[in-house]
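Posting this for the archive.
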Amino acid sequence: MVLSSPPHATAAGEVAAALGVEVAGGLADSEAARRLAESGANQLAPRQVPPLWRMAWDAATQPFIVLLLGSGGLALFLGEVRDGLLVMIGLVPIVAADVVTEYRAERALEALHAASAPIARVRRSGQARDIPAAELVPGDIVLLRTGDVVPADLRLLEADALLLDSSALTGESLPEPGSVLADPIDAPLADRRSLAHAGTSVVGGHGLGVVMATGAATEIGKIAGSLAVLERRRSPLQRELDRLVRILLIAAIGLIAITVGLGFLRGQPAGANLLAGISAAIAAIPEEPPILLAVVLGLGAYRLLRRGVLVRRLNAQETLGAVDLILTDKTGTLTENRLALARIVTPGGPVEGPAAAALLAEALRAEDDAWRVASGAHPGSFAMAIGQALGEAPLLNPADLLESEAPSDAHPYSSTRTVAEELALGAPEAVLALAGGEQQPWHAAIAAESDEGGRLLLLARRPPGGSWAPRAILVFADRLRGEVGAAMQVAREAGIQTIVVTGDHPRTAASVARAAGMEADRVITGTELDGWDDARLTVELPAMRIVARAVPEQKLRLVQAARAAGRTVAVTGDGVNDAPALHRADVAVAMGSGTQVAREAADLVLGDDSFATLMGGLREGRRMVENVRKGLVFLVSTHVALLGFILIATLAGHGQPLLPLQILWLELFIDLAASIAFEREAEEPGAMRRPPRPRDEPLLTNALLGRIVLAGGFTALATLAVVELTTVAEDHVRWFAYTALVVAQVVRAYANRSLGISVLRLRANWFLAATCVAVIAVQVALPHIPPLADAFRASPLDAAEWGVVAAIALLPAVAAEAIRRLGHTWVA
């Protein structure tokens, strides 16, 4: 197709001629077959999803997984079957979670196929017939009817009261009329009335269009192409775990080298030496944080589901805690995504009560498509909204109708003539022209309502033998959700910037934003945004609140600019147009009622579509991340205490300070149970009045790591003192030291329920308290259960020894409590 200007800016007849088709007869079957072979099927190319074995291989070859597998294998080789199997079994849930998550993510592009209509009605060889939409080719003449999904990108040739819902592609909340007239050449996507795009739907009237693009060349196809090259980056906590793994692996390698090297220098047997090395490796390699993260996020997903938020990718939950910018769609998220009658007004003011009901009844009779319902036709959007406002729409008797005319380009209003009257309902200026005269009060009322951003229809009536007279202005709108205003206030207090990005008209977007309590003095349009370079966009971004008439590329550009500026971005959306931005966001949030494309590209799906539900999810995300941080503080302090104790005990001449089973019991069971109990910790006071954590700031800052080292180092040194000062059997000394480490970690777990607030000010966490008591009870009982006592080489402690254990455990907690009361952050 060769045109001097784009199809939307070219006359309909020229487009059809350029495509080599006769509108009356359509393409010949032979020509359609030739073009199908040339252009390919009207569908998106299938994406190759990596096989499950490949996903499993990638998950199982992460560095810490490989090291733990190696340690477990070496233990099995040396005959320590129990220790080796425990290490390997602990890795199964980690690998499985990775595989399931990646598999579901790979389905995002496949969902784009669902946006295409399976059947299309076309003219071929002079006949109208239904064919699979995949067989459409450029030049096909497609017939559009109410209820159809547009099967390809079309240039409209006929539009008879045609109303198109393009919200899935443009974000435009209200249906727009189709037109055969050419649009301005620079008209943005949302303003191109001469086009009907694949994936949009016909909600009123009927029309005719010529196919100008199929498959990957459609707007949906272009979106699919942009998604194919996008990669989701690792989340903040994944990066945090990578950092911790690197630190602890370096420590592990050094500790193993020191332990094994000193053992050989001292002449210890090779088998004992390697077992000491395995103990050191198990103590150093961080196997618990990934398990902690998987379990806590799994429980968090259940909590979010109870709030109406379905979690599709677990790591998105922890990213919620760092979100400082939300790019939200307007339609369906801030509003109800339903065309409804907002009010009825006249120059004298609003009309309510019985007078309003009478006007609504007239408006329904004025709608051409309302009379067709009795014959089985679908009512149009305006007729449906009027009927809903009446409560129960009366079924009009076709026998009362003398004639009716649907809206068209020549007269953009519906008109009907009955035995009792003539009625017109449509574009205000056009209907007002019927009445003649200056009608200044009506013009003023129309202008005032236009500034509010709703869709206006003017109702006029002419009695038999009389003149046309305006009756009322009907204002239609996609109304704001009731709970959105309070949610916006929470976002402001939490330091989260919100930008409404919509395909709607600037006035409509500003009206909704004002109703939600947002600043709406300045509205940026997509055209204005295109005129900015990246530097200007970066400067303007912090002050932006509304972007209207936006197209998919602009929403994606906003995400990229925000991320380049170091922001953590959440994007909401429900349409095909939102998929690229969703795919690139730190947190992608889709609407449950939105397109399958958006849902499959998302991390979270809102069951009720509401922005308020998203803010509830953000609140839960902050609580969850803070609790994960507490769990990590606890786990890292465990490693510091164990590593420090094993290192200094080895340097002091103790060949194997702790047994592998003891370390595994402490790390994989005691520590993990206690750290998972942090998931039950309630939100700290004032959590939603603090600014979000910067994206590049780690959960465990250098200052916090320093305090962790101090706390864990104290435990290690105090435990070594126990070993050095106790002159009894080696197994008893080891058990004494091990008990001190266990009890110290249990007390540390409860004392670190908050790092900046006194524990006495917090609401009780009975689950964590019960876990701590249970761990100490098991530690007391182990020496008295013969099989376990033999496996752990455990022996009972006397009262004096328990006193030493209590002192080692409680001193850091008491010190931390005193420091926190002074207003400082500290680790027990």
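The chain has 30 helices and 22 strands. The longest helix spans residues 611-651.
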